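User: I'm new to structure prediction. If I give you an amino acid sequence, what do you actually give back? Let's try with this one:
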Amino acid sequence: MEEISVRQLLDLKQWQKIQNLFAEIIGTNLCLIEPSGTSLTTIPSKVSNSCSDFAQYRTSPRTSPVDCTVKAFQNWFQQKESAYKCPHGLSYFSLPIWCNEKTIGVIVVGPLLVGKREDDKTYRMICERQNIDPKIFLDRIYEVKVFSPSGIRVMIDFLQELTQYLVRLAYQREELERLLPGFLTVQGRGQEFFSATYLRLLVNCLLDIASHVVHADSGSVLLVDESEKNFFIKLARGIPSEILKKRRMPVSRGVAGWVASQKKPVLIGPYGDSTVPAERLKRPKIKASIVVPLRFQEKILGVFCLNTMSANKRFNQNNLLLLDQLGKLASVALARTSVN
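Assistant: Good question. You get back a string of structure tokens that encode the predicted 3D arrangement of the chain. For your 340 residues, that looks like this:
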């Protein structure tokens, strides 16, 4: 494969659906653009106002509208800077997609606000410089989502890692088919192999990023088996060997079973308000835990758990909400493996 492109490696119709779901979960717009500047998806996944929307509210028709998504994309290609703050005071992030050390696409995330909103006086000054109706602008700016610096980093890191996995696996599949034409078809298990590889990479990525957020001492990803009656341990780190020996457990048991039945994340520990029944808490050495359901369209796919054995202020309500968002993104990706 001499020339590699995202068009070759990703099913763009499927990617549009994934992109739309990710945009809804994160709460900001996403757009996949190829190096030439052409949008690779039919439309951007739009869940909030974009800077181009402000153009219709210009007070001076002589002022040229600014497409900040394009500006953010150009900023990455020219300056190799992933973060871009636009003239309207909003932030965009560009996530390059690589294959064989070549940039084959860029995901632009935004607009969004990092840290906090500015005061109205600051926004009125921006409106004056950009010739935008301040009343309309102030109304629209409060619809733009605010992220903490660490929160947006977690979201975009996971999104970028997931996209890289998809591209890498697709490339490897194309190469195998090129070197051994018909091999995957003849073997009849090609899709199963790539789906299993994708799943393994996905859960590793999820546990890596989630563990880093709270500095967890241990963690695991439990998935529901085909019977939908049991969890099986797909990945575990720092978990006692006697627990790992079980490998499977009924979905109705333990803290994981309770979280799955409630379909909402819980924080167990000094900074939590968990209502998990006491009889399900059977590991007293654990000082705090975060347990998050993996659910897609009301269906429980599994749960992931993080634990600390000592006092740890990172096991708090803010990080519980952040990891729940991460779990929702992972669930979209997990659901993909079940439809392939």
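You can read the tokens as a compact description of the fold. Here is one thing that stands out. The chain has eleven helices and eleven strands.
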